[in-house]
Batch of 2 targets.
Target 1
Amino acid sequence: MSKWFGYVGLSIGVLLLLCCIQMYININSLLKNKNPKKDGFDYLPITKMITDENMPNSHSFTDADIAEIKKQPFIDDAAPFISNGFVIKATGGTTLPFTSDVFLEAINEKFIDTIPPAFTWKEGDNIVPVIISSDYLELYNTAFAPGRDLPQFSEKSITALLVRLDCEGVNGTESFRGNIVATSDRINSFIVPESFIKWGNRHFVNSNGPAPNKVLIRTKDANDPQLLKFIQEKNYRINKDKTLFGRIKSVLQAIVSGLAAFGVLMILLALVLFSFYLQLMIARSKENLQLLLMIGYSPSWLSKTVSRKWIPVYVSIIVVTLVIVAGLHWAFQHFVMKDSNELSPFIHPIVIAVAALLLILSIGINYRLVRKLLYRL
Amino acid sequence: MQIRLQQLAPTFIEEEKISGSQVWKNDIVFLPGEKIQIVAPSGSGKTSFIHFLYGMRTDYTGEVIYDDQPISSFDAEEFSSYRKQKVSIVFQDLRLFTEQTVLQNLEIKRQLEPYHTESRIEAMARRLGIASKLNKPCKTCSYGEQQRIAIIRSLQQPFDFLLLDEPFSHLDDANRKLAMQLIEEEADQRKATIILADLKTTDHYNSTKTLNL
């Protein structure tokens, strides 16, 4: 009786485990690469979470914070945004009549997606190249310009525009001409060359500028649950939309892992049942086995012979469950995913490898157990 | 192969019985081809002695040595390799698989390390008068028949030593003679040593040495 419970338990456990592994692999391949990537990476700005409670505190990143972020295996690289500590007033010309206080930021050039050759600045240059977010241009074109009867600009025509930048600090005032040289899909800001911000901070306010409050990270997968876990633990803030799949993924993975753990538990339980059954069987034929040992049969030969009886049972359990998993996976791919090419209709080789491993493991455990029991006779 | 006894004595027999013995507390070497007769009244440890030699019991002092190796150091694998190839036995209590047929009992031993062909089994059974029983379950055979089955079984393997523990207790004189002849022939063929333990000197046994236990 316990033999049949053992078979059924083992089958269910193996089925559960293999299904979970396949599901885990499916989840990973379905919920990956959902964001547009230009060079295989996702770029995400992270900031420190500002809450009512921590409002008075500093929310800037220290060098140690940045070093720690860079060190994480799921983060490829990271760079802080540096910003101006001096006052900047922008004034449009006749085509664009406006005056406003503005901010400028700079970041390591490798993090910018569009860098025209003109994007350089050295002390003495009057023209400061600026890269603006393409979102800003769109906002201007669609929300601001029509109401004020202002001209709309294409991404190309905007580069002809010159804006006066009046920079002011304790050391005096200086005027520059800002020239929009490109738009960026990646960075939501006004970006100027690092050399300009550094020089301006030194020149106008004798400082290195404010500590960075925003860090841009580069990662292979914005939906990596480990990344999300890290962000959450450090109480950082990240664009929720870009990482939504990651959140779904981590929940699903947790559920599947729980089920897999249950499967492993069932397998263990089944093996325990088997061991009871074996003990019973060997106890029942104890006299005959003892006699065989007495007339010269070796315990190792006997254990091999006895445990070999079970190999077909284990093989059929594993093969049948593997076939069921393959059928379920195919049905999922065909009926639920409508034959989408995001998933292969065949089970992943890892599932087959795990099944083979389980087979070897159960035969091995069985053999060792029989051997142990026979040596005890 | 050689079996040597070094001051062997059971732990459970009185000192006076041991001191008068030609076996206990002696140093004895059994040489190839010897035919040893061990004689002892019941209760003096005959079966224990055979069991000590075969490695089935360990409640003794001194040593039983197979080829310079004390068998107290053997593990189950080493015992089985000796029992398969070098030491054969007829137990006093026979120890047959009573549910199996006579032929199965013999085959189970023969197939482990075949010395004879299957047809030799039948010839031996015929010689000892149990050929008609070969396909009958062992439990339907009389004790005398079972004794002959156990003897034939012990002859299915190669051996240097044949241990016999009161092997003829339930055989009549004619059958004793037939069995003894067969055993001696088989032992001579292998140049093996016979150690036969019995209550008194066994008839028809051409023993070369008799030891009183």
Target 2
Amino acid sequence: MSVRDTARSDDIVAVPLRHPWRWVSAVVLVALIGSFIYSLWSSPNINHEIIDKYLFNEKVISAALLTVILTVISMFIGTVLAVIFAVMKLSPNPVLRAVATGYVGFFRGTPLLLQVVFWGYLGIIYPKIEIGIPFTDIIWFSEKTSLVFTALVAGIIALSLNEAAYAAEIVRAGILSVDAGQTEAAKSLGMSSGYTLRKVVLPQAMRVIIPPMGNEFISMLKNTSLLQVVAVMELYARTSQISSQNLAQVELLVVAGFWYLVMTTVLSIPQNYLEKKYGRGFSVADQKSRWMRIGMKGNV
Amino acid sequence: MSKSLMVDARAIRKSFGPNEVLKGITLEVEQGQVLCLLGPSGSGKSTFLRCINHLETINGGRLYVDGELMGFREKSDAIYELKPAAIAKQRAEIGMVFQRFNLFPHLTALENIIEAPIGVKGVAKADAITKAKELLASVGLSEKADHYPSQLSGGQQQRVAIARALAMEPKLMLFDEPTSALDPELVGDVLDVMRKLAKSGMTMIVVTHEMGFAREVADTVVFMDGGVVVESGSPRDVIENPQNARTKAFLSSVL
């Protein structure tokens, strides 16, 4: 299979071209990066003991966990809403289209930080939340807003609703990328539009949706740090709380940065898996593995 | 209206914006018959085919399939649009094969075939698989059940597409230029499958440029041009002995 198998006696055996500048540039860059890292490492202004002390500190780890939980929940709610808004935007119903367009415009058009603070202050606008029939005395549920919309709930709502607006456009692009012939074939087989969407269009759209959604996931993970302003004790809030007490700001930034990097790296792994899964039937590499699987099973 | 009429199209009109593509098409297909639609591109034959299963909504005329008005309900002088579910039900009984196959690329050949019987008709999965394997065998692709469309040649994809349509046990099959996107050496296999299907008594409407197939298999040949039926009759009359000047010009250019 390799080139060796087909090598022949009359093949050209040439002296390879030299690339001296590749070596020069590599040496220069390694020297620059190395000296930068060394300057940080050896700086008397950075206390390594503090970094060591807090890197695996229980409070820091549990804050990092909270960050992951916030990310996953907000991403899940955001994605479900995104599919709904994307379908609304593509709907023939002009009311649904206008609502979805307005939603996306509003939530993309205001800063996330502002939205986070707004949900945190919801209790000021609506001190009490009641569920019942308007203009009657029938009330099934009544509670102070601050008890329902805790900082955590407000944060999740803010992140989810904002994510839905961005992801809606990604999902819509994915749906539009599926050939119109697919929908026609599905219709001709008597499939309803909902069934067509679930079984024919979305599985193919996923191929286009997943790479940018991977980006969104990573953005979301980092955006959870904005919840600091409504006092959710996620990773950034926790580390800055610690540093406000021991005044080791840079050291705790290093700690937070380390964990953000670890989490974004780990969360990128499922993307690879999902891309493979939804690339089924499309990529050449997948065809090969499929062939091998067929061969291993031994029957059809 | 005769009882054995499978398709009864009366003065069908269809416009796209200001462009009138079908200018009153009237034709009938009896049960078990094969009708071939010929004509230059842009003559409206594909559009007419798509009107039959309501992929296009007609602007005028009446279209009956097996005695049932397609896409509408007529009641005391008024005509109502049908609900999507009712239209889907009508479509489920009409198979369609597309020029570009339109197989679902994320599903294997077998999965392509069983999707609609399970999801639309509620057939048990095991039964659907048994039936799909029979169909794959009948189109000569038993070994390709686990292949994705991208791993099949155009001719193989089109045969899977025919099997997929047949899995719904349609009473009528529509073919929209089924061999036009194929390499010449792959056309024969697809035509063989269609020939077998015609022999089995399936009612078929075929838009095609394959004159040999039309001559051999069709009971009726209809020549369309400019949105109207120019000439129709037996293959012998229309293909070998055309009366209309436009038919003659078209046939001399394709034969």
